[in-house]
Predict the 3D structure of the following.
Amino acid sequence: MVSLRRFSSRGAALWRRLRTRSSSNFRFAFIFLTPHQRHALEAVYKYCRAIDDIVDELEAGPSGIRSARVQLHQWRQRVLAIFESGEMEAIDTPLGSQLADAIHRYDLRIAPLLEIIEGCEMDLEQSTYSTPEDLERYCYRVASCVGLLCIPIFGEDGPEARAYAHHLGLALQYTNILRDVSEDAQRGRVYLPATILAQHGLCSNDICNGIYDARFIGAAAQFAAIAEREYQIAWEHLRRVDAPLRLVPAEVMGRTYYEILRQIRRFNFDVFLRRASLRRRVKLRVAAISIARNAVQQTSLQ
């Protein structure tokens, strides 16, 4: 492990806090923030969760889809109202008010908020994706846009930070897709692109039936390589960020999910019987290395 003496004083303080206050990936991100930042990030998280739940918990049948569309439209109108009216009283839910406060305090952009709704709405319209490009559009909306909302709260919102958030979001979502192949298949969803499956002699029905053989391993490995590339692109952009230590919360999350991707590979992509997860001590190690990297990088930039 890298010695704390090589950290900046801030990096060492973050590590001490990490050791005493962490139990989940999301809480890892929270502990590096001020109270105002935590409140804003919590608003973004709750917003994303609310939009996601509308789709994930819909009732079966056409009536459920109609109800979900109505609820998504209501949230779209709330977001528009926040940007069109500076009055908090115009927002009709507690979450809407909390989100409005975060938007105004950190100058969050409207586009990512609306794109998240569009992304979740895509799950009402399709359960498979033809090409990696089709899937990328979906993942940008449901994952990259979350990162684009978070980085202003973290305090680093330049072009390189935005590119970092864009590509890291894709990498995280691709990792999630690999990890959750079995769970998604049970709900009739197959996110692995059909063109990749076809190259290995598979189709979406094979995934829904839990086929695990050399064909699936080949397809999963090809998809993992796409995720790997997005991580590497994200980290190239991170190296050019002005204040990388501000992005420690995102980097802890990114490195944690990268370790999950590595674990999936070690399991030889047997995601039907094993769900990749990390022990707390591994998360701590990953977080410590993330702090070290960012602290050393920031020191070199000063």
Remarks:
- DSSP finds 14 helices and no strands in the chain.
- The first helix runs from residue 9 to 20.
- The chain has two domains: 1-31+126-302, 34-125.
- Residues 231 and 266 are 18 Å apart (CA to CA).
